[in-house]
Design goal:
208 residues; alpha+beta; 8 helices; 34% helix
Length: 208
């Protein structure tokens, strides 16, 4: 996520600390948790409030987490994150909070397309690179929050197919296994084995 400097200082600085805050976009105030969290580092709380509210004005009312990186001269940068998955799910079903009884109480239902939409929002902050795995992660939060995803089981069967085993791909025995593991020609995109000597060029062979 992009960071936004809260000062124009350009000299080399040392980061002395950071803190993550879950705040409502456009509505931050110096009151807790902001005041105590930034006060421990001596950062300018009033300037942070002004900066954060300006950056999140377009998303007023949404929970927009922010990581505040504070530097040795008390300047700071803001690293805005995506809204929590639970918040996006609750909003999608019109609920203010989760069920609190995972697997027993359903607070609402969303479609598989809505799950994909939320996963696309969250993707920049997840430790995965493809949307299918992001959808699986968001679905885990949905289960914990009591949000049912219509059509999820059917989608899951085709979204992440189980990789074929060696036996399924090449059959029994070594005859069809690619070299160097078996007797068949090596895979076209396989890299040379580490330490293996390169094949002599055709011209060199002819010259010999």
């Amino acid at each position: 996520a992009p960071r936004h400097r809260g000062t124009t200082a350009l000299r080399a600085l040392t980061e002395i600390g950071s803190v993550k805050l879950n705040l409502v976009g456009g509505k931050a105030t110096p009151a807790p948790p902001v005041g105590p969290a930034l006060g421990q580092f001596g950062a300018n709380i009033a300037f942070f409030v002004k900066e954060y509210n300006a950056l999140t004005a377009a998303k007023t009312g949404e929970v927009i987490p922010v990581i505040v990186h504070v530097f040795s001269d008390r300047s700071f940068t803001l690293e805005l994150k995506t809204p929590p998955s639970a918040e996006l799910l609750h909003k999608a079903v019109g609920a203010s909070k989760g069920s609190g009884k995972a697997g027993k109480e359903i607070i609402g239902t969303i479609s598989i397309d809505k799950l994909r939409e939320i996963a696309e929002i969250k993707l920049p902050d997840l430790n995965v690179e493809d949307i299918d795995r992001a959808m699986k992660m968001v679905h885990g939060t949905a289960v914990a929050s009591g949000v049912d995803v219509e059509g999820y089981d059917e989608w899951l069967k085709t979204a992440l197919p189980k990789p074929a085993s060696i036996l399924e791909r090449y059959g029994p025995g070594k005859q069809r296994l690619p070299a160097p593991w078996g007797d068949a020609p090596p895979l076209e995109d396989a890299a040379p084995a580490e330490g293996a000597e390169p094949e002599p060029a055709a011209a060199a062979a002819e010259a010999a």
